[in-house]
């Protein structure tokens, strides 16, 4: 995508246009107006007296609002127009667009203002994979509206276009004719509404008021409340303040109301491809944001619990107790050409569900929710033993049952070549990746705590603790790569260790499954030049067969991954190392105006001086947005112990003094202070050894 | 109340509801409270079933009762659902079901529906293979 692409969004409705505000989508690029995974406008072009316009400037006022200052096209760099055109667009169940034309001349001018509009009603999956449509199109031209309709059997989606000023409508758009007095102005408001006839499921998920004039005001107030509700950050480092604010605002933008829980929001995964409920992404983001906006976790737990698997369904890779991977609402899902209704093919969200529930209680003291979700948490714990142990070896493994459209890799590194041996060969299935065992261990330990403390089931608590201890013992024996001093990324279908060195080791620290005696060696690898680029820990170490600094999961650095690695390092007492990683990723954030991308290149920091963005990375992406929040937590060493919040700061020197004020939790509100004392310059020098 | 529609001799829908009624409790529905009514259409009639949930307790009746949610569809489609061959969520997205009222109760109904019989069978086969 070019740099002048403008994205505005509200929940899972978003508009992607060029810098003029125009939309000219091809089948394969994700520009247009999208809502619930369907494109409702693929063409939206403004002309004045037959001329296209040029952008003087574009303001992303808020995440839901943009303003375009335009002049009639001159074809030259020399601009001396008598007319200015201002488009102000706000997303809300479609969008509202205020069009203002100013006549700077003394004489009146006759104007013909034209909007060309069309929609291909592409399913987001079709845009992603460039597929053809199977239904029929219809255009209904009314006296004061234009309706674009797509039908396939009973499936119907439509786009309504109306305007406040009188216009003449035709099949391809609408035209206004007006005379604007000298130094006068002309204005109209266009309203584009998306409609999903019969799809009650979707109507309920919509948010926002219907009155056009109040939309922006209402959303601005909501954003203000959101930011004000979060802790305040004061620090010497202004860049960090920018990153923090950016994270809060982007997190607000990515909030999404699932139809199952009207009135509550949880984080969607990312723009543009992933504006929907994802088990894994919603859980990780909720964990990152817990000290800041704990409500996200509560909604995530409720919504995912309500859609927890209840039956065996091979097409959807569903099992009883399994937490969903991804929910979609488009045409291909409706006609079961894709399994996302919802799709359950992920092996980590289910244990992580229990981890989030426990962590949520530790912060908030909300035992009511823990009781409310007892059934769901027990079902998740049961899934680990009854449905996830595909090899009968006591480990969670994955192998898709939907071999046509299911996901091959059901862990967070879900690309085809993400799990490999040192020599680059790929293992078969089922695969038991290492971090899954960590999550399972943590889920059992935390499940035991909840069983003892809240559900008052000592028998369950004892059993889970015993199973956890047994799992830890076996894991440290079976996954430990003796000649490397780290944990194998997986055990394959033949019981062999998949022996490449990966960032997954950091997640193992986070889960607490690593024997104390092995932790130092693991931490050493994470900060070694093979894994640590100076910006962060690479997904795969240099020197491995498949290493590629711009390979999606085989060499890039993922901010989300690093935020959990740093948390893991702190868990085992490696404060300095955690601060080192925090420094690297937060320094990288400065190059992206505080908005961390999904991933960036695994080149050594000393070589590139700036982080190289991964080409098609999603942005903003929820768990990248959450990463700085989790880094703040780890740097300050925030840990709820009983009814207290323990603060044990270990900040990089570059951060200086830092205060996080009004941290919400079971203690009410508490402030945390820290001062940067960790020298992080050394590792940067060390990383120069990497390639 | 006597059924208003002609039904085949082995009526899956009736069997499905009878089993639910005799079970009386389903922990999967512990969070659902309210009544959902099904309006199942055939060529010449509409067959009503009302399901009441109280924290997992289920009662079934054949009345055209007032309900917190109503779900209307072709009888044949619902027959597929109780067989496990039609997915309710996908059907909702296709627009083949009319839903009014509390959507949460519709999702509660969905939790009672089985998966495809073949998926169950292949799971049992895999379990067999794992036994040493």
Task: Describe the model.
The complex is a heterodimer of chains A (691) and B (132). Chain A is an alpha+beta fold and 691 residues long. Helix content of chain A is 32%, strand content 24%. Chain A has 19 helices and 30 strands. In chain A, strands 7-8-9-10-17-14-13-12 form an 8-stranded antiparallel β-sheet, covered by helices on one side. Chain A has a 5-stranded antiparallel β-sheet with strand order 3-6-11-16-15, with no helix packed on it. A 4-stranded antiparallel β-sheet of chain A has the order 1-2-4-5, with no helix packed on it. In chain A, helix 6 packs antiparallel against helix 8 (349-364), helix 8 packs antiparallel against helix 10 and helix 10 packs antiparallel against helix 11. Chain A is globular, with a radius of gyration of 26 Å. Residues 203-212 and 684-691 of chain A have low confidence and may be disordered. A 5-stranded mixed β-sheet of chain B has the order 3-2-1-4-5. Chain B is an alpha+beta fold and 132 residues long. Chain B has helices at 12-23, 75-83, 88-94, 103-112, 117-130, and strands spanning 33-41, 46-54, 57-61, 69-74, 98-101. Chain B is globular, with a radius of gyration of 16 Å. Helix content of chain B is 39%, strand content 25%. Chain B has a single domain, classed as SCP2 sterol-binding domain (Nonspecific Lipid-transfer Protein, Chain A). At the A-B interface, helix 2 of A face helix 3, strand 5, helix 4 and helix 5 of B.
What features would you highlight for this structure?
heterodimer, A: 691 residues, alpha+beta, eight-stranded antiparallel sheet, five-stranded antiparallel sheet, 19 helices, globular, disordered C terminus, B: 132 residues, Nonspecific Lipid-transfer Protein, Chain A, five-stranded mixed sheet, 5 helices, 5 strands
């Amino acid at each position: 995508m070019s740099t002048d692409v403008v994205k505005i969004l509200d929940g899972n409705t978003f508009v992607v246009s060029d810098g003029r505000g125009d939309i000219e989508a091809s089948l394969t690029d994700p520009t247009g107006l999208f809502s619930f995974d369907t494109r409702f406008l693929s063409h939206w072009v403004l002309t004045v007296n037959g001329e296209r316009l040029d952008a003087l400037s574009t303001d992303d006022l808020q995440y839901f609002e943009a303003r375009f200052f335009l002049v009639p096209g001159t074809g030259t760099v020399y601009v001396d127009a008598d007319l200015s055109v201002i488009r102000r667009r706000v997303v809300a169940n479609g969008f509202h667009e205020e069009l203002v034309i100013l006549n700077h001349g003394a004489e009146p001018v006759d104007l013909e203002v034209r909007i060309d509009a069309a929609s291909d009603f592409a399913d987001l999956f079709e845009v992603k994979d460039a597929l053809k449509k199977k239904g029929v199109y219809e255009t209904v031209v009314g006296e004061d509206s234009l309706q674009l309709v797509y039908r396939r059997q009973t499936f119907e989606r439509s786009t309504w276009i109306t305007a406040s000023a009188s216009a003449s409508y035709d099949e391809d758009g609408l035209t206004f004719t007006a005379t604007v007095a000298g130094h006068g102005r002309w204005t109209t408001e266009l309203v584009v509404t998306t409609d999903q006839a019969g799809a009650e499921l979707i109507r309920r998920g919509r948010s926002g008021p219907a009155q056009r004039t109040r939309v922006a005001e209402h959303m601005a107030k909501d954003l203000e409340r959101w930011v004000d509700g979060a802790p305040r950050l004061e620090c010497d480092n202004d860049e960090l303040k920018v990153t923090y604010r950016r994270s809060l605002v982007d997190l607000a933008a990515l909030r999404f109301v699932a139809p199952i829980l009207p009135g509550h929001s949880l984080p969607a995964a990312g723009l543009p491809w992933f504006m929907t409920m994802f088990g894994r992404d919603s859980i990780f983001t909720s964990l990152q944001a817990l000290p800041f906006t704990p409500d996200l976790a509560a909604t995530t737990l409720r919504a995912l619990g309500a859609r927890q698997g209840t039956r065996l369904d091979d097409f959807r890779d569903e099992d009883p107790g399994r937490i969903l991977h991804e929910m979609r609402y488009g045409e291909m899902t409706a006609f079961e050409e894709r399994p996302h209704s919802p799709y359950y093919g992920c092996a980590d969200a289910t244990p992580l569900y229990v981890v989030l529930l426990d962590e949520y209680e530790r912060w908030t003291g909300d035992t009511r929710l823990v009781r409310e979700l007892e059934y769901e948490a027990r079902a998740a714990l049961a899934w680990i033993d009854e449905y996830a142990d595909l090899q009968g070896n006591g480990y969670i493994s994955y192998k898709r049952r939907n071999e046509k459209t299911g996901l091959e890799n059901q862990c967070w590194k879900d690309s085809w070549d993400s799990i490999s041996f040192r020599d680059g060969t790929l293992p078969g299935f089922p695969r038991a990746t290492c971090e899954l065992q960590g999550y399972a261990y943590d889920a059992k330990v935390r499940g035991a705590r909840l069983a003892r403390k809240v559900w008052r089931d000592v028998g369950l608590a004892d059993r889970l603790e015993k199973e956890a201890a047994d799992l830890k013992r076996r894991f440290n024996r079976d996954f430990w790569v003796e000649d490397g001093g780290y944990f194998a990324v997986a055990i394959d279908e033949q019981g062999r260790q998949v022996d490449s060195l990966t960032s997954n080791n950091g997640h193992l620290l986070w889960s607490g499954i690593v024997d104390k005696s092995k932790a130092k060696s693991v931490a050493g690898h994470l900060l070694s030049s093979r894994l640590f680029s100076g910006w962060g820990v690479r997904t795969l170490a240099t020197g491995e067969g498949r290493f590629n600094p711009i390979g999606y999961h085989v060499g890039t650095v993922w901010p989300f991954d690093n935020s959990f690695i740093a948390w893991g390092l702190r868990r085992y007492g490696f404060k300095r190392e955690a601060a080192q990683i925090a420094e690297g990723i937060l320094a990288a954030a400065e190059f992206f105006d505080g908005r961390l991308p999904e991933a960036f290149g695994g080149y050594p920091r000393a070589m590139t001086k700036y982080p190289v963005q991964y080409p098609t990375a999603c942005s903003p992406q929820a768990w990248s947005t959450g990463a700085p929040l989790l880094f703040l937590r780890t740097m300050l060493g925030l840990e709820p112990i009983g009814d207290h919040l323990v603060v044990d700061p270990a900040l990089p020197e570059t951060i200086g003094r830092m205060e996080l004020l009004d941290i919400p939790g079971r203690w009410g509100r508490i402030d945390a202070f820290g001062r940067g004392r960790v020298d992080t310059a050394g590792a940067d020098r060390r990383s120069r050894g990497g390639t | 109340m006597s059924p208003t529609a002609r039904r085949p001799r082995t009526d899956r829908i009736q069997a499905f509801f009878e089993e639910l009624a005799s079970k009386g409790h389903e922990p999967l529905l512990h969070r659902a409270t309210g009544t959902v009514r099904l309006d199942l259409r055939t060529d010449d009639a509409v067959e009503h079933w009302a399901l009441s949930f109280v924290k997992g307790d289920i009662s079934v009746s054949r009345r055209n009762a007032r309900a917190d949610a109503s779900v209307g569809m072709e009888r044949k489609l619902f027959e597929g659902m109780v067989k496990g061959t039609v997915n309710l969520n996908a059907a909702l997205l296709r627009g083949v079901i009319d839903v009014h009222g509390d959507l949460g109760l519709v999702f509660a109904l969905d939790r009672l529906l089985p998966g495809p019989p073949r998926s169950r069978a292949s799971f049992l086969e895999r379990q067999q293979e794992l036994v040493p």
